[in-house]
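Continuing from the previous page...

OK, I double-checked the sequence for Transmembrane protein 208 against my notes and this is the correct one:
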Amino acid sequence: MAPPQKGKQATKGAKQIVEENQATLVFYRNMAMIANALSLAILVFYSSTINIVLYLFSIGVYVGSYQFMAIMARAQYSETGQLLDSGNDLNMEGGVAENIKDLIILTAGCQVLSSFISNYFWLLWLLAPVRLGWILWKNILGPYFQAAPQENPQVDDKKQKKLERKQKRFANMR
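Thanks. Re-ran it with the corrected sequence; updated structure tokens here:
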């Protein structure tokens, strides 16, 4: 293991980003497939309408999330095979892909736990909208509502002097 670095984190090369993106996509694809296989094995024996609907919904979440990450990570090559653009880094901290990966993990957890323990574990999916609301508040709504009002907008010196003269004239008229 490499010793921890002090200061700024080293940047990744384009080829390394492409390789890590492919490994990330394979990992989350395998996670989704294993969770689906386990859930389907139980669903065959103990099926109900709600379980089937939630199973199909989870498949939709997996497919949509995987496709979104695959599009984000799509690398572009020149006609000669040279790497032009490595795509977005799926392993970047604080990125959109991190939230999508969290959604896949949450879905896999809900699916497997509800298959083996109790159907009430499907309710864990309610954490996704809570997380979305938190992200919206933290990044968009919170700073908007909590921003301090601007005191005085910047005024040119000429405009400021003109305004002071008008105020003096008005004061003299009284």
